[in-house]
Amino acid sequence: MFASRHVVRRVALRQTRRWAHTQPKLQSVTADDVAHFSKILPATSILSTLPPLSTAASELSPFNNDWMNKYHGNSTTVLRPRTTQEVSEIVKHCNERGIGIVPQGGNTGLVGGSVPIQDELVLSLGNMNKVRSFDPVSGILVADAGCILESLSEYLAPHRHIVPLDLGAKGSCQIGGNVSTNAGGLRLLRYGSLHGSVLGLEVVLPDGTILDQLTTLRKDNTGYDLKQLFIGAEGTLGIVTGVSILAAPAPQSTNNVVLALPKFDNVLPLFVEAKKQLSEILSAFEFFDREVYELAVKHGQGRALNEEDIEGAECFVLVETSGGKREHDEEKLNGLLESLMESETPLINTGVLSQSPSQFASLWAIREGLTEAVSKEGKAYKYDISVPLAKFKEVVDATRERLRSKGLLHADAVKHVVGYGHVGDGNLHLNVVAANYTPEIEAALEPFVYELVASYRGSISAEHGIGAMKTHALHYSKGDVSIEWMRRIKTLFDPRGIMNPGKVLE
Amino acid sequence: MRPSAARLLNILVPVKRTIDYAVKIRVNPDQKGVDLNNPFDEIAVEEAVRLREKLKDQVKSIKVVTIGPPKSIDTLRTALAMGADSGVHVEIPDSAPSPEPLGIAKALRAVIERQKEGVDLVILGKQAIDDDSSQTGQMLAGLLDWPQATFASKLVVDAAKKEANVTREIDGGLEELKCRLPLIVTTDLRLNEPRYASLPNIMKAKKKPIEKLSASDLGVDLTPRVETLKVTEPPKRVGGGKVENVDELIAKLKEAGITAVKA
Ligand SMILES: Cc1cc2nc3c(=O)[nH]c(=O)nc-3n(C[C@H](O)[C@H](O)[C@H](O)COP(=O)(O)OP(=O)(O)OC[C@H]3O[C@@H](n4cnc5c(N)ncnc54)[C@H](O)[C@@H]3O)c2cc1C
């Protein structure tokens, strides 16, 4: 199965040479710069350890350290503008001075993209948190980039609409951050990617110019669709300040069920069956293995299933339905469950069906709590990959074996190798939970995992992005020509290289 | 020792389908009023099932009963899926006003009197989350002249002695009661955490018997006696605002007509 591996390696070597290039030299923020920012922003919008403000470094630490506490920056200054105009003036100044900027949303990114590598300025969007407009007829929502995803859901609820995107970090992540990482999440199966549902963006370009593409049109074929470039750009091309997005009508009825499977091989046929029988009401199909389920229970994420329901289960699948009519949806779901239970060669051992809104939330809490459970258990190496569905288990097993063969699979090194993810989207979250981040573990995992993914022609980043974590591995998923053109685009927008330096491209 | 037939327990669990318009569900995207099973009743069903798991054959039957419109049958099915053996549905028309605690208590008494083997233990929710009356259990105990232990957070039953120890949560501590059966127990939140209904049990529940009765079968009148004058929502909270500094705060307070009081 690794036949193509050395091919990959040869390509890799050739590429590293071509990649050697020099970053433009960037400047540190000085007291003079802070004085300049004080003319643009009110005092409450500036945190800086530099005089005259001399903010305590501890106040900046939430902005300098990432969610996993894996990536650490040394920024002296954090700015929190409230308007697009303020953002524009800050960026213009930084461009003139050659100061690196890290745009920061909720700082929940999982690839080290949202914190400085050195002492770049952090531009936090948290103060830009107003809904600009909502049209209940078309469902088009226009909001500041700093709006927290969950507060947008709450805003839309009385209008009977939902954001077409949902993820475990919803309470902290911002719509601008979601757009900038092209976040996938739990509703992608149903509502598609942000490349489809984002209708327009307002972006402050690296020279301070405001690019207003905040249209509220469903259709607009007038030349190049520039906004697409910023979706998933991870803050390397400009700062997203406003988002126009197509909200979906809220479903009138939702159900969920967690199914326990005797073996991984059954996931695929189960997915086929679920799609066939549930068709348009299938809204999520999420997979998690037994080991990560146990971690979720251990760390109190959602209410555990009964003992007899998990007996003999190798993995679990959460199926959600959303539709317009309760009776209709329940009939379909019950039909599926009955056929699964009564089949001669059952794909599932058993399962539990939520009976109340609190149980519905509780079942989701298990799935949504996996990321958090993993990080409570230890230090996580996270690989967010796209591989053919049938290879999910193979990837997890091969990684575990690799660590075992290196003598790293024990309580003081790697404690768990687990897999979960969005089956519906072919997206596996391979998580290696270690006692500590160490060079030995990293060397055992990389480039091993990336080569493994490349051997299946998969993607080394399905939805979390490249950030600082995977710049060196980009070539496993993108060819020379693609990378060359990405680089040209970056230089075109940001000739001085001030926007999120060291992220996405080396 | 094999307990004699007379010492086997028959448990009755009344359940109610409630509609909670205020419920806000974190994940459920529709976020609107939903029909639910009263959570305290789910705890009551769970406790009955746990008693059987503990006492095994000494629990002879667990019967659930609901008094409500046709849709209430879903509530019974859920309870049956959790492990109850059979159900009674006292059906009232969709158009009928919802009955009051006294009417319900009388209907429950009539149901209990119809049980040939009698009932030894009635476990009910301490209140329903729609009307919050918290009266049914107490009224039923009064009508039957049985002992009652309300707001239970722990229940230990000795079937052989026909006794139960009940721990109640009261202000500032716990109270332990020893009661003789037959007994009425109402459940508090901390009594247990109800299980999920598993697929095999949901399938089995479809085949469990549900007896359908009407108020007139029971000889009770469910017409409400209390007239509701008015229902109002609590006043809307107006959002707060942030101020940049103390001066601004003082200016805002003055604006709002609040002035300092000289000592
Ligand atoms: C518990 C948990 C669950 C998660 N689940 C999922 C999931 O299911 N699917 C998924 O795709 N991801 C998931 N993620 C990761 C995901 O990428 C982020 O949660 C989210 O999309 C990032 O939003 P944020 O506002 O926190 O951005 P940040 O973390 O602050 O930033 C992420 C990147 O975007 C850039 N950026 C942020 N805001 C802007 C802006 N306004 N303009 C330009 N650039 C900007 C940053 O520079 C950085 O490169 C999860 C994370 C956690 C912690």
What does this structure look like?
Chain A: One of its GO terms (cellular component) is mitochondrion. Chain A: It catalyses: (R)-lactate + 2 Fe(III)-[cytochrome c] = 2 Fe(II)-[cytochrome c] + pyruvate + 2 H(+). Chain A: Belongs to the FAD-binding oxidoreductase/transferase type 4 family. Chain A: One of its GO terms (molecular function) is FAD binding. Chain A: Keywords: FAD, Flavoprotein, Oxidoreductase. The complex is a heterodimer of chains A (506) and B (263). Chain A contains 19 helices and 18 strands. The longest helix of chain A is centred in the middle third of the chain and has 17 residues. Chain A starts with a helix and ends in a 13-residue tail after the last helix. Chain A has four domains: 100 residues, Uridine Diphospho-n-acetylenolpyruvylglucosamine Reductase, domain 2 (2-Layer Sandwich); 119 residues, Uridine Diphospho-n-acetylenolpyruvylglucosamine Reductase, domain 3 (2-Layer Sandwich); 118 residues, Alpha-Beta Plaits (2-Layer Sandwich), CATH 3.30.70; 115 residues, Alpha-Beta Plaits (2-Layer Sandwich), CATH 3.30.70.2740. In chain A, helix 10 packs antiparallel against helix 13 and helix 11 crosses helix 15. In chain A, strands 15-12-14-13-17-18-16 form a seven-stranded antiparallel β-sheet, with helices on both faces. A five-stranded antiparallel β-sheet of chain A has the order 5-6-10-8-9. In chain A, strands 1-2-4-3 form a four-stranded mixed β-sheet, sandwiched between helices. Chain A is α+β, with helices and mostly antiparallel strands and 506 residues long. Chain B has a single domain, classed as HUPs (Rossmann fold, 3-Layer(aba) Sandwich), CATH 3.40.50. The N terminus of chain B is likely disordered. In chain B, a hairpin with a 2-residue loop joins strand 8 and strand 9. Chain B starts with 8 loop residues before the first strand and ends in an 8-residue tail after the last helix. At the A-B interface, strand 12, helix 13, strand 15 and helix 14 of A face strand 3, strand 11 and helix 5 of B. Strand 15 of chain A pairs antiparallel with strand 11 of chain B, so a sheet runs across the interface. Flavin-adenine dinucleotide binds next to strand 3, helix 6, strand 10 and helix 15 of chain A. Flavin-adenine dinucleotide (FAD) binds next to strand 3, helix 6, strand 10 and helix 15 of chain A.
